[in-house]
Please model this.
Amino acid sequence: MVSTVTGTEKPNGKGNGGFLDQPIAGDRGTLKDVLRLAIFMLAVSAVTTAAVFINWTPGETVLQAGDIAQETYKAEGDVSYVSDLRTEEARREAGSDVNNIVKSYDPEVREDALGDLGSFLSSATEVRESSAPEAEKIEIVQSALPALTDEESALLVQISPNSWTEIRTQAQRLVDETMSNELQSDGVEAARLGLDREVSSFLTTTQQDLAVAIASAFVRPNVFIDDEATQSTRQAAIDAVEPVTVSVKAGQAIVRDGDAITERDIEALEALGLLRSQLDSDESFGVAAMMVVLTVALTAYLFLFGEAVWRNRQLILVAIVVLGPVIAARVLLPQPDIQYMLPIAASAMLLAILVNIQFATVVAVFIALYAGVITGLSLELTLLYFIAGLTGAVVIHRADRTIDFVWSGIAVAVATFAVGLSISLISGGFDGATAGRILIETALSGALAASITFLSFSVLGSIFGILTNLQLHELAHPRQPLLQRLAQEAPGTYHHSIIVSNLAEAAAAAVDADPLFARVAVLYHDIGKMEHPTFFIENQANIGNVHDGLDPHVSAQIIIDHTRDGVRMAKKQRLPQSIVDVIAQHHGTTRVEFFYRKAMQANEDVDPADFTYPGPKPQTREAAIIMLADSVEAAVRSMAQSGKLFENAADGDRKSESERLVEFVHGIIRARVDAGQLDECRLTFSDLKVIETSFIQILEGIYHPRLEYPERVPDRRQDEPAVAEPAAAPSAN
Model:
């Protein structure tokens, strides 16, 4: 089965088994991958937030409440200012005054309390007069009025009817008189304690205690705070407070050296123009929050759609190209004269060259938004920076010549000039001088963006292991040392590589892989054969097969070693790592079948590992395409040279010949799939069908059957009679 594992994962798809390499979030990656992305988000958030809070203006002091003053600050003149802090404190004091609390008496509470008491007394009387056992009566009374103790409940049941009548009367009187007065919640307990003084002295002590116990349970507050009226009163008191004005005389010390700085000191120093404190600004906090929101959104985009970027070092590249313009914008954009000149487009242009145009476009949006936030949510500048970045990325993303950088700079200049001119027309400030200024600034912007991109893309590409189109074109030049050696020392291999490069390039283009990389990587994939060129059949013209006299194990090892030799030679010549990977992966873990079978015939006890390439299997789509192209070309060429490719095709039947080629190519690709060689790349079965079709179209033009031409009729002698010559045979395709 063809897998969908990305090329950056381990061959087994699980990492090295460590805790941080455990897969999480489905196929999204390991914990280490997600931690890397989280660190990116925190780092970018921290830098962009710091860019907002750091004081970039020379000559201003930045202090915070709690700092120790390093000098004495004095007023330079008589100044009066409105103190927001003091005004707010005065308003808080006015609002918290207890005199603002509005209370209201509720007479219905007394009626409710008397009603509840009457209900209890009636129930208690019924219980006393019932025939239930005494213990059950006590339990019923206790449940009806839990405030009574066990002794008081027993006394209520056992007391005589006359005494009970006296107690009922006293309890009702006590509640009625107590609840007739205004009673707040904080005075309820005191009122209950005062019932002992109000109870009738004509009752016995036992009767008094029981009457007080019953009445206490029904005493409750009847005065409540009117929330609405209280709030209205408080607001009126707050509104009545006038702003507090503070006057400072010239020479008066605001803060002395060594003093702890307070919030009031900060306010005074700001009012006097002696410092700028960015931390007490709601605007700064809002801008910082927007920076964090943008960073979270950018990180989410990377997680969902930029997997190939955040799983490797390219995440650092993204951080650099995002933070660079943000910091530059924070330093330079407060100066309006250079807002159109800022070469923010360079970031999108670099990503277009080093990653891809789609990713560069999205990041250009975020960079423009970052800059827009820094410029005070300027929609005009946000649009200008986005259009500049998008234009530069579109023009430069397929750059393969130096002149392309010039054209990209011109495109950025034209685009930003058009947007700047439109902004000027909309604002109504357009004139000839303004147009000239915009033209100069946008021209400088385009020139700077192109220059920065040209000077840095190669360095960044080298640091982060990214191949650019320009580098690939340089590597494909026939005068490259390794290619020159390959053409001279192993011409058959060189010719084979040229054909395979055509196959791989066409197939990669057909499945939206990287055709240029595929073509260039193929040119180097067999450079290891230069160590022993005559041991490979394509280089054995007129010398016979040198393997005929060798042990199969030795022959297989020489064949297998060409991948190791190729990797060593490539690293020595400092070829890009992605090409080195293709050299190592283009045979995967396949077996040198011919020599393996030869060894089996000579000795049944054969270790298959001795005849197997070390791998790894192809990790990328391009590496897999190169493996298939290499296998198909070698096998088809071998079959064609032996005459077996079309041996079963009907004579002259081009349809059967094509079907034979299709069947043969399909079988080779199918064998690689069945062997699991494509399990670790992102080719799908649909891709394989397209690749197969692409291969066949090219191979039909190279290895189609040839017609046998009749032998040439010798020129007749002058003394021989003329004989009609046969018609010329049709030319073969």
